[in-house]
Amino acid sequence: MLNRRHFLATGIAAGSLGLSQARAHQKGEPYVLPEEFMPREVKLRDSFPEGEVHVDPNTFALYWTLPDGMARRYTVGIGRGNLYHPGTFYVGAKQKWPKWTPSPDMFKRNPNGYKNFAPGMPFENGMPGGIANPLGARALYLFNETTKRDTYLRIHGTNDPRTIGIEVSNGCARLVNDQVKELYELVPMGTRVVLHEKTGAPPPHSSV
Predict the structure, then answer these.
(1) pLDDT tier, 117 (very low <50, low <70, confident <90, very high otherwise)
(2) Of 86, 62, 84, 57, nearest to 72 (Cα)?
(3) Which of 2, 66, 81, 142 has minimal CB crowding within 10 Å?
């Protein structure tokens, strides 16, 4: 697993972004995504192959690698606590306005919370795609490189900008819908995706 130093960019260091602005907001308050959370091209200190996705959970950053050591950087929400799963994956499926069904692990952790997805209930076949769907406008489905099976991990959209720049999800990385639409067009099927390890203490914030 690569060290977080690989992700520090010259000119705009990922760790220097004003993430406290995202941490401080309260649900229900008017909120505009901070300018520093907008996508931008950065120069990486260490090179990665072109055409890969790298997620650094320590700085809430997702990188789409470009030629000459450059990358397009997005700010993301990541899995909370031990629900974040580092590893190397690949994009095994892509969907526009995807349907959503909680994973088996999510059912185990909170069966009452997902009772509407049980057999005979309104969403037994999944929640249809749409603006209220937790996967948002686009989703990249991460598959295991060895077994070639779906891991239930996603890179997906959200219509709630308050969830960007914090530990919030059940293990997936999320971008605001406008940004995930852009990323979706950039990233082809089969792309290598690396979710890097958390290396520091958990940040003093979480979302339920």
Answers:
(1) low
(2) 62
(3) 81
Question: CB-based burial of residue 31 (10 Å sphere; 0-12 exposed, 13-18 middle, 19+ buried)?
Answer: middle
Spatial CA neighbour of 207 closest among 81, 55, 114: 81
Q: Which of 55, 68, 60 is nearest to 187 (CA)?
A: 55
CA distance 149 to 61: 25
pLDDT (0 to 100) of residue 47: 80
> How buried is residue 60: exposed, middle or buried, by Cβ count under 10 Å (0-12/13-18/19+)?
buried
d(CA 58, CA 64): 17
pTM for this prediction: 0.79
* The domain made up of 4-98+133-195 is a member of CATH 2.30.30.140: no
Residue spans per domain, the chain: 4-98+133-195
174 close to 74: Cβ distance less than 8 angstroms: no
153, β-bridge pairs: 142
User: Which tokens belong to 84?
Assistant: 């974040």
